[in-house]
Write a structure and sequence with these properties.
This protein has 4 helices and no strands. It is an all-alpha fold. Helix 1 packs antiparallel against helix 2. The chain is rod-shaped.
């Protein structure tokens, strides 16, 4: 914002200088209109040369100032460099954190599935000795397990 204020201040100074030049031109124009035409044009040529020299100087000054303003505008940035670097760091940390948490929760779910299947196998291993001794109970258990697996979703 400070650069924009500086640019606006320079533009304001240039505009006021330009207005002053126009005022001088009007004053010279009025003097020129008040002049009586003489057969000798040397004084008129002298005044015209002075006016043209002043005009060239004011135009050169105006162009120099405009080039300076355009150079400053070209160098100005919308955001400072440190702010852009901070944004990149923040985005990198967020990406790393979300990647880690995604990986962690996927592995957590897989670990839980492994633990459940291991517990089932272990439970069935202990129960297999009991089922070998009692075949009727094993048949009833199989029917019960089938019904549990085929229960429709109750909403």
């Amino acid at each position: 914002m400070a650069k924009m204020d500086e640019i606006m201040e320079v533009l304001t100074q240039e505009i006021s200088g330009f207005n002053n030049s126009i005022g001088k031109l009007e004053e010279l124009s009025e003097k020129f209109n008040d002049l009586k035409i003489q057969t000798d044009t040397s004084s008129l040529e002298f005044l015209l040369k002075g006016f043209l020299r002043t005009q060239k100087e004011s135009i050169a000054t105006y162009e120099r100032k405009m080039e300076e303003v355009l150079r400053k505008i070209g160098k100005s940035r919308w955001t400072p460099k440190w702010e852009v670097a901070l944004l990149y760091i923040f985005l990198s940390i967020n990406t790393i954190a979300f990647g880690y948490f995604g990986y962690y929760f996927i592995n957590y779910d897989l670990k839980m599935q492994d633990a459940v299947s291991k517990a089932r196998q272990e439970g069935l291993g202990r129960a297999s000795g009991y089922f070998e001794d009692h075949e009727i109970i094993y048949k009833d258990f199989k029917r019960w397990a089938k019904r549990q697996d085929s229960v429709p979703n109750r909403k």
